[in-house]
Amino acid sequence: MAGQAEDDITSVLHESRLFKPASEFSKQAHVKSRAAYDRLCRRAEKDPEGFWGGLAEKELVWFKPWKKVLDWKPPFAKWFVGGSTNVAYNCLDRHLEGPRKNKAALIWEGEPGDSRILTYQDLHREVSQFANVLKNKGVKKGDRVAIYMPMIPELAVAMLSCARIGATHSIIFGGFSAAALRDRINDAEAKLVVTADGGHRKGGVITLKEKVDDALKDAPSVETMIVVKRTGNAVKMKKGRDFWWQDEMKGASAVCKAAALNAEHPLFILYTSGTTGKPKGVVHTTGGYLLGTTVTSKWIFDLKEEDTYWCTADIGWVTGHSYIIYGILSNGATSVMYEGVPTYPEADRLWEIVEKYRVNIFYTAPTAIRALSKLGKQWPKKHDLSSLRLLGTVGEPINPEAWMWYHTVIGGGRCPIVDTWWQTETGAIMITPLPGAIPAKPGSATLPFPGIAAEVVNKNGKKVPPNVGGYLVIKRPWPSMLRTVWRNPKRYKETYWSDIPGVYFSGDGARKDKDGYFWIMGRVDDVMNISGHRLGTMEVESALVSHSTVAESAVVGTPDEIKGTAICAFVTLELGQKPSEALRKKLKAHVTKEIGAIARPDQIRFTDNLPKTRSGKIMRRLLRDIAAGRESVGDTSTLEDYTVLAKLRHDEES
Ligand code: PRX
Fold this sequence. Notes:
This protein has an 8-stranded mixed β-sheet with strand order 12-11-8-6-7-14-15-23, with helices on both faces. By secondary structure, it is α/β, with parallel strands linked by helices. It has 2 domains: 23-443 and 490-497, ANL, N-terminal domain (Rossmann fold), CATH 3.40.50; 527-653, GMP Synthetase, Chain A, domain 3 (2-Layer Sandwich). 31% of the residues lie in helices and 23% in strands. It is globular, with a radius of gyration of 24 Å. The site of adenosine-5'-monophosphate-propyl ester (PRX) has 23 residues, from helix 12, strand 20, strand 24, strand 25 and strand 27. Residues 272, 318-319, 394-397, 419-424, 445, 506-508, 520, 522-523, 529, 533-534 line the site of adenosine-5'-monophosphate-propyl ester.
């Protein structure tokens, strides 16, 4: 936990508007009133295992019942002990028996305007076929499969195929560099990689296969690469290692029984940034994760049989895993998937898609809302958005102005907005309004999901009074929680269960107001939230110092109107190196190459020295103030060299 964390937790937001759901919405909702929500919470509080066990029985298909709902040996949890099931079976096979057989599971829109609709039956067939392809290539239960793909239907097919045979997938966001991809492949020791020749983005083509080729120069565990032909750009295929998806699928049988998997079988690993340079492989398992995503999807998005649901996230992030694929398909709903950027070919692409498919439920990130609102309401006004009945946000706090724009311009004033707080580690949404039951306050994620014991506490784990900032913790295990950090249980324990006694610490600061509503105040550790994506300052620092000209660097986040946070890097050069515009550019490109474009610093400031305490610790709080152009109000009495501060303020990137 960062040393100055407590100073940062002073709450400034004062938003008092309250938006009640319309009574027509509440009447038809899965959870219809505050009283119904309170009843669910009370039941969960009194008997958490009975609550989750009851839902697991009702909402999922099990091959073998569990013997025990929870085995909790802090901080290690096992849910539905002894039970067996299969995530792909729950997402596909169980829907084939009734009228959902020919219902659209995925409606996919390519950036160039091509589209594909896969019914549950179609998706089941392709998943079974690709599961057989994986088997033919020697992939067995428990093996890891890395997936590095654009947002195309084959990505959904690949992940569900892994789930079908019990291979553990590790999806790496397509924006990550070859180096980042290599590190993740090696950490998981993946046996096979699924990729594509490229993907369409902003009217151009992003190359993927080339990056995998690069990564595989130093990734000895990988035996096979499967490549989807998407863009048709030229790629080199290595004989005996690389195979075209389309060729492999041709001969593959469409019969592949879903494996009966232990409830605790690892479904996927997803790497996320932490406070050290090395990303953590967050491990999610089968039964608990599926229950968490299924129930939250149903109650929070109020999914109904006839709904068309669209989450704009990339499947490379947890939001896409849980709320484009697993939670949504498990409910037998229709999920829209879009390949490209929101502004291609024009600023109304998202609204055009909403109109085209008559989308009813729309889930996106505040950064997208802010960026699109800046472009003006004429773009959404060009389209009929009357099909929308519910809106959602995720990934970062939403500022009340953006909330109001979303509510009035996109939602026409009639759609409830669910502001959902959760994390890669939590697997499923944790704090959120249930849209028919809980009035919204713009900027607040409102109340915990029933069964989730969220609290705001001080360093000693003691609950703080209303409106006092503190640390956001979860006091009880929950089914979709991460089980460990891949092959590093020590790091799991230290990162999440050590700072505050006896509870899961999220890394976020928050306050609760007098109505018990949660207001998330952002990270209190050295993790930034860039456009709703997590990035450790240390990761960017390591990338910078890996450049031959850099001696030392300190990276901080600074407020940004659109991205939420922008990256500011303070850099001390090696002796003999001279600061220049050209070097700035080079260093930015270097970070992009090492991690990916999301990590590219917005600002690089050269400095002879970094402000340090006498014990040599970089004083990030001061750097944050300098980057944001604020006068430092904090304590500088431990600063080693006062002149450093004055110099830093003068070296601003023009
Ligand atoms: O700081 C919180 C912020 O995003 C972090 C989790 O990032 P990640 O694991 O990448 O997952 C993002 C999507 C689930 C949290 O620790 N965050 C997420 N949702 C919200 C949020 N901050 C404020 N309000 C939210 N609704």
